[in-house]
Amino acid sequence: MQIPAYHADTYEEQAHTQVIALGERDGAPWVAVEHCLFHPQGGGQPADRGWVDGHEITPVRDHDSALVVAVASGEATLPVFSLGQPVEVRIDLPRRLAHAALHTAGHLIEAAGRAQGWLLAANNHFPGQARIEFTAPQSDARLVTPQGREEATEAIRAEAAKAIAQDLPVTWDNDTEGRRIVHLADLHSAPCGGTHVRSLGDLTDVVLATLKVKKGRIRVSYSAAHRERS
């Protein structure tokens, strides 16, 4: 049984574990470990960068086994592993924290947009592409003019800044259907399989460009970073 350790602790950088499964994906070998630190791409978040016994890997979700498996990155190859073999696993922690900050900031912007009466339509938490898209159930007169769009954006900025200043905790639990639900205190809750910061005070440099409206979608592009750890 694989333990999704990336859910339990965003900040766990390395661990000793063992091989629990082996297989192939598109003709290339993969290895699955019990204590899995590696977050695969999904839910608008890019994959972690990681290593198994010093060999750089990319984690992917294997649809047949439902395991997160490690495949060799780039032109590299994996050595021959055996079931039960002890291995050391590690992630690129700065990259992980960058992803977690963007993903958490995305939830915060979603909460601020919902406070405006908008509904979530799409999200992307990739560096350099991060955005949250909404639809408005009724016409929002503010979005017709540049000044109105800037005023709406400023309202979202203010809501986000207030929550960050309050350093609201970020937690998760499973609902009755087994889905993982991420909570920003009482401000927002949503099903999510991504990685997140410990509290909103870990976010810094949260910048929102003036929102755009196109084909009925309200797009809020943003950037964010993880505050340096003391």
UniProtKB/TrEMBL annotation:
Organism, scientific name: Nonomuraea roseoviolacea subsp. carminata
Name of the protein described by the UniProt record: Ser-tRNA(Ala) deacylase AlaX
Phylogenetic lineage: Bacteria, Bacillati, Actinomycetota, Actinomycetes, Streptosporangiales
SUPFAM superfamilies documented for this protein: ThrRS/AlaRS common domain, Translation proteins
Domain of life: Bacteria
InterPro entries, alphabetized: Alanyl-tRNA_Editing_Enzymes, Thr/Ala-tRNA-synth_IIc_edit, Transl_B-barrel_sf
